[in-house]
Amino acid sequence: MALLINDECIACDACREECPTIAIEEGDPIYYIDPDRCIECVGIYDEPACISVCPVDCIVLDKDNVESIAELQFKYKNLKDEE
Fold first, then answer.
1. Distance of CA 67 to CAs 35, 42, 48, 72, Å?
2. 14-68 residue pLDDT tens
3. With left for phi above 0 and alpha for psi between -120 and 50, is residue 11 left, alpha or beta?
4. Which end of the chain is less enclosed by CB atoms within 10 A, N or C?
5. Which conformational region is residue 22 in: left (phi greater than 0), alpha (psi within -120 to 50 degrees), or beta?
6. 0.70 exceeded by pTM
């Protein structure tokens, strides 16, 4: 399941700098997480890095975009292969 940034975002840029897959983009007025790039940091960190650094706790699970651990790992492998 990808993550989602809600309307409480203060556009502080903390999450974007921590994202290992460059899934977070600057939006207007709040940031946006690309579900095709978000792997919830599976295989990289114990928890999503963006959630741990967000000062206003505006990053939540996107219940409309559910993925298994295996799917997230596969997505990460494909992203690494693109590099």
1. 10, 11, 14, 7
2. 999 999 999 999 998 999 999 999 999 999 999 999 999 999 999 999 999 899 9
3. left
4. C
5. left
6. yes
Which residue is associated with the tokens 């994202």? 19
Both tokens assigned to 78: 């494909």
Amino acid at 79: L
Contacts of 42 (CB under 8 A, 6+ apart): 69, 72, 73, 76
Q: Are 62 and 4 in contact (CB under 8 A)?
A: yes
